[in-house]
Amino acid sequence: MSETRLPPGRGRPGSAGAARPGPAAARGQGLPRWRRWLRGLLLLGVLAVLWWPPVRVDCDDPVWRDASPEGDAAVLLCARTPNFVSPNVAPAGSEGEAPPVDTAALRGWISLRDARDLVAGVVDLGRVGDAPGPVRWTADAAVLPGRAEFARPADTALPLAFLRDRLWKWRALLGFVAPDEAFR
């Protein structure tokens, strides 16, 4: 009886000609091309969430700030400048300065920050001119009457707090936060 020869890597499992999983299969090189692309896109998405900062929620000069009595949290009100406006910058070739942007008419964010100044909650504010009153701080909440309610941020480790910060910023940037009208 003659034995048919199979090409290398083809044979019954456990036989000498059977393919053995090697380091290439462990790295995913044996995957179909579309699955490698999918893995790459997923990795890029994770890196974008972690390292590409959606800075529209951050502001260097908040319109209003109220810190908790314990000092472990603060509520900030930041104006959102429209994408097409450059405040106090004159167009090229013109004299003088452009008129300042009226921040009272702009939309804004009310954000809860933890002790590290990382975002722990965001509410979309319709008009910055409707500035809220004082914050009522309780043991487990920060309440702006008629504007926003936040659960006090738990004292979490830095990697989780950083991830929470990024997720809240992305939610705000994509519009997945509650408007201030929801709390009236």
Describe the structure.
The protein has 184 residues and is of the alpha+beta class. It folds into 2 domains: 22-52; 64-84 and 104-183, no CATH class. It is 22% helix and 19% strand. The protein is built from 3 helices and 7 strands; from the N terminus they run ααβββββββα. A 4-stranded antiparallel beta sheet has the order 1-2-3-4. Strands 5-6-7 form a 3-stranded antiparallel beta sheet, with no helix packed on it. The protein starts with 22 loop residues before the first helix and ends in a 10-residue tail after the last helix. 17% of the residues are buried. The mean pLDDT is 78.
Sum up the structure in keywords:
7 strands, 3 helices, four-stranded antiparallel β-sheet, three-stranded antiparallel β-sheet, 184 residues, 22% helix, alpha+beta, 2 domains
How would you summarize the topology of this molecule?
Layout (H helix, E strand, L loop, with lengths): L22 H4 L6 H19 L12 E4 L5 E7 L28 E7 L4 E7 L10 E2 L3 E4 L3 E4 L6 H17 L10
For the record, the count of structural domains works out to 2
Structural class: alpha+beta
Sheet-strand content, in percent, reads 15-25%
Distinct helical segment count: 3
**E-strand count:** 7
Percent helix:
10-25%
Distance between the termini: 88 Å
**How would you state the average pLDDT, rounded?**
78
